[in-house]
Protein 1
Amino acid sequence: MSSPLVLNGNKHASLTNSLVILIFSQEISNCQKNAGSLGQTPHLCQRYNPLAMNLEIKLPRSIFDNIITQARDERPQECCGLIGGRNLQASNRYPLRNRSPQPETRYFAAPEDLFEAMKWMRDADEDLIGIYHSHPCGPAYPSQTDIELAFYPQAVYLIVTLEPETEMRAFHINAREVIEIAIVVVD
């Protein structure tokens, strides 16, 4: 029996047709505590930022499920990939090979995979709307390295964790500021 799925801190035994996960379920003190435990300063966590209140990324169920499956299949290594679409509505997922010398704790997308994925996005008239990776044993929150290597401020960064339970969260990262945003899973 699989454990319940957790998205943005909310447990779900099963998903409904259109599931909206709200991000404001924890107190800001919990956010600050979590940020501090990750070696970050509490000001990096902006749960109540008004900008984030209007942002959400929409993932078709198939893309959502395939990201989680990829994370499970590639465990104990971190998985990674890109999401193409328009206006934060995902159309396609582009899984990438992790070529990091430390794949259990870092990801570095294979350059040839990145090149191909960007070409496919261009051919499909898509924008890069998301970058995802997994933290097989860590929290679904950007690490200091994730924050430092967030070079695409227009993209949403999705992080999947598998332990202690499966969870996916989404973030906007710009100039070292982390803002959690909502994930909407649609059928």
Note: The helical segments are 28-37, 50-53, 61-74, 111-123, 144-148.
Protein 2
Amino acid sequence: MNARETILNSCPLGEPTDPWPAPYFVLPPGSVVEAFKTSLNLLGARTIDENELAGYIGPKTWVEPNAGLEVNALNGFQNQVDLWDAEVGIASTVLAIAQTGSVCVKSGQGNSRLATLAPPINILIVHRNKIVPSLLEALELLPDGNVAFITGASRTADIEGVLVPGIHGPKEVLVCLVGGEH
């Protein structure tokens, strides 16, 4: 028997007896919203309500055109500052993931995503009924087109492993939860 045959004979034939386990995520006790908040806090981000959101709205705030459609604090808001000079950017999201604390934002008409990149403070509007337990479920529900996942504030590390926040984007990420419970 040659080396090739020896190697092939040592390989099991047919279907594997121990297939790879399917990806899964078990929610901790409580709701999917509470699991999302916990994951978000581990990333150094936090949630705010609509009352707190009102405190961030001012002349140096830039709001993505579709972000305030269902948020009372943003009704009638008009951008007064150029996006690149804004201190706060507010954007809408399409989904949030409890497992990772990530939010998904979509580019396209009325959704430039620049509000999530340029200002030092990024506020993301998340509807409670759009929070899913896991990344796998999010991938099944995401709309077609360009979608980005945001998982906490921008951060990078140098060669010595020193983590520095806010280098390539916002230094702070806040999530404003709106709508009824999941």
Note: The chain has one domain: 30-178.
Protein 3
Amino acid sequence: MRGIWAGCLGSILGLMCVAGIAVAADRPIPPPIPPVDALSAPPVTARFAKSFRIGDLDGAFSQIGLGDMKKALGAGAVAGIQGMSWLCYDLPAAKQRVWLSSTGGAMETVTVTRIGAPSASCPALPAKNQAVVVDGGIRIGMARAELTKRLGQPSRQIDTWTVYSAQQAAGRQGLAVQFINDKAAFIAITHLDR
């Protein structure tokens, strides 16, 4: 899938391009893939992503399936392509879109981006679920200095992208954050169990 979208993903405008193509084709919007691979970066930090919160709903990486998340959130349809399944939701009050995705049974990746307008392809979540936070702190709008204070120096910095990687006996984690005007505008966090 990386090769299909590679030409579109050079910037935040590329993310809009991906969403536009999917909507025009009247298909569910697939999660955007950052142009940097956080899982291949050298590990520099301890495990940083055990759980996430969507409004008042708590979830744990690799412990809850997409069907369970859909049921808990009360909306959505699991979509898929090339071995990846996902749910997407719009958070209109926050002007964000969130994808929950998996390449197996349990949820592995949370991706959050800023959006201009909601899409009919991604149902809107109720007001009580309008905030997405990973492990109580990683979120859209956070400053680069705040992320560095929380996680230390990154594994890599490439253009507007900051990448963290962690490895433990239990698995590997990757975090890719795009900063625009020193604020997080795109977050993709992946947790893979061994």
Note: DSSP finds four helices and eleven strands in the chain.
Protein 4
Amino acid sequence: MIALSKMADHGVTVAVALAQAELAPNHNVKTNVTAADLALVTALPLPTVAKILKQLSHGGVVTSLRGVKGGYRLAEPPQQITVWQIMVAIDGDFSLTECSSHPNSAGQSPHECSRSPICQIRPQWQKIDEVITAALKKISLYEMIPLPQRLMIEPLPALHHRVAPHNIIQSGLPS
């Protein structure tokens, strides 16, 4: 089974809760969201949320402000933050196997194993890793907000071509 780390999973959960708070219609743009508020909303322990927020801050996903009106905000709109960014902020670079991790500037994998010189499937693992990475980079934080809540945040656009009732009568339909 391939699975995210528990902290990366919680990191996405905390980031989604922060995005929901910032996008809520009644949210004051100048208000920051506290770690305690996020812990309450996500039902995660406050120390876990605080650790995640610190990692997300170091990763550039959120910004923090200290003081009485302190708290956290997303560094970018949720449509511009990817699940990949959150995962990397929490766990560092992601790869399925040690040898399939992303190459360094010299084009070499930072994790060479003793089987690397004779391994015949390493290129296939790297290809799978690239596909998964690309998919995670395409999914925005906004897309992680459950659809019913996204619809409450941004209602569906109005229909542009409405059919007036009198047009139906004039269309020559049998009476």
Note: The first strand starts at residue 62 and ends at 65.
